[in-house]
Write a structure and sequence with these properties.
Elements (H helix, E strand, L loop, with lengths): L1 H56 L1 H20 L1 H9 L6 H34 L2 E4 L9 E4 L1 E3 L6 E3 L3 H8 L2 E3 L10 E3 H30 L6 H14 L2 H6 L4 H11 L2 H5 L2 H6 L5 H12 L1 H6 L2 H12 L3 H9 L4 H30 L2 H6 L8 H27 L10
Antiparallel strand pairs: 1-2, 3-4, 5-6
Helix pairs in contact: 1-2, 4-18, 5-18, 6-14, 6-16, 6-18, 7-14, 14-16, 16-18
Length: about 425
């Protein structure tokens, strides 16, 4: 026992110098950091004093003061009418009225842009969808459209048929399958492509919304490297931009080869469909899960904006709600369902609308429609474009009706 006691005392004595050395090292590191901070602070302080000296004690500074004075007066009188409107009208509105006014103010430039640049082309495309539109071979009269008629793209004949372009789109129109092997004659009908696009859009809206919300909750946590993690999840948005796509067009052959090599590599190792089917899980659910896993890369790639929207919504939730819930003994799981989810539910509506529109714009159907904007297929192109728009609006309308019942507005006033 005495020997053990002496050994213990020796170990304690030997540990003390090590702890003292660690404290000395930490103190030296803190002093070094303090010196660096002081040097940086002094550097910028000298720059600030130099600018202030030039501004206050030189002729150039006096001229600059005079210029800024008159520029300030100019902008004050230029926007004085805004101040008058705010004092005499805006300040007298209710809270809801002020929010409505600000919403209309921000929407005005968009509405003006739509009326000036989009309304006329949309009306003309609607007219073209019920017309035979073509450019004659002699091209003496330019573009010709005959309302209420149909120009058959393959036969080159014109017949009197008000819905001819739409009938052709739903009964005869076929597209070469995107991504098919070279020399393949495989084709897909417009109706099939439309339903596949609608199904994929609904799937994207559900999966991307849930995934974005979960990632936003995770990124809102307090951990080291949080800024880097946020940048990583937003990086695919930049890499999938139009500029990057144009810059990498020359690498399409290499990219397609690499995709061909890596295609279905995971399924070759692990067949998910066979695994779940062996447990008696319904085929519909198996196909749904398989579809989600096969598109996991695109889910991550197209979730950057949605993650940012949810992250901003979560950070705007009042902190006192979480503090009150913690005092009451609520777990983080309960706080998510009782506080986070209801408070960010208005942004769920925004995210779903954004995802639906984004999914339609990058769908295969957009790729199929684009080549038809040529002579003599203008009428057919207009018809399938309007069907495409209507399908988007139907899905958006259903989503809005469903989500409108579950959205919670914290500051809503009756």
């Amino acid at each position: 026992m005495a020997e053990d006691k002496e050994l213990f005392e020796v170990e304690e004595v030997s540990e003390q110098p090590t702890k003292l050395m660690d404290l000395e090292v930490q103190e030296e590191e803190l002093k070094g950091k303090a010196k660096i901070k002081a040097a940086i602070s002094n550097f910028f302080l000298k720059i600030k004093k130099g600018i202030a000296n030039i501004y206050n004690n030189t002729g150039f500074g006096k001229v600059l003061q005079t210029i800024l004075k008159y520029v300030g007066k100019f902008f004050y009188y230029l926007f004085y009418w805004v101040v008058l409107i705010k004092r005499k009208w805006y300040d007298k509105l209710t809270s809801r009225g002020q929010k409505t006014f600000v919403a209309v103010l921000f929407l005005t430039p968009i509405m003006l842009g739509f009326l000036i640049f989009y309304l006329y082309p949309m009306v003309m495309s609607l007219i073209y969808s019920f017309s035979a539109v073509y450019i004659p071979k002699d091209a003496t009269n330019g573009l010709i459209f005959e309302f209420g008629k149909f120009y058959h793209p393959e036969q080159g004949t014109i017949v009197s048929d008000f819905f001819g372009n739409y009938k052709y789109a739903f009964t005869e129109l076929m597209f070469p399958v995107r991504g098919a092997s070279f020399g393949s004659t495989e084709k897909i009908s417009f109706v099939q492509a439309l339903f596949e696009t609608a199904g994929q859009t609904i799937l994207d809206a559900v999966v991307i919304t849930i995934f974005s919300l979960l990632i936003a909750v995770m990124l809102n946590g307090n951990f080291k490297g949080r800024g880097v993690a946020r940048a990583i999840f937003f990086l695919p948005v930049i890499l999938n931009s139009e500029a990057i796509e144009v810059a990498t067009e020359s690498a399409e052959a290499i990219d397609s080869t690499l995709n061909a090599i890596g295609k279905d590599a995971l399924s070759a190792i692990f067949d998910m469909k066979a695994f779940f089917t062996s447990f008696g899980i319904p085929a519909v659910l198996v196909n749904f899960l398989s579809g989600i896993t096969s598109t996991i890369y695109s889910t991550i790639s197209y979730s950057g904006v949605q993650i940012l929207i949810f992250l901003a919504a979560i950070q705007s939730v009042p902190v006192h709600l979480y503090e009150a819930a913690k005092i009451e003994g609520a777990t983080k799981y309960e706080s998510f369902w009782k506080i986070t989810l209801p408070m960010v539910s208005p942004m769920i509506l925004t995210v779903v609308v954004y995802t639906i529109v984004d999914s339609f714009l990058r769908s295969d159907l957009s790729y199929y429609i684009e080549p038809y904007a040529v002579n003599p297929k203008y009428g057919v192109h207009a018809a399938i474009s309007w069907v495409y728009i209507l399908a988007t609006l139907v899905i958006l309308g259903i989503a809005l009706l469903v989500l409108k019942k579950v959205v919670f507005y914290h500051d809503e006033r009756n």
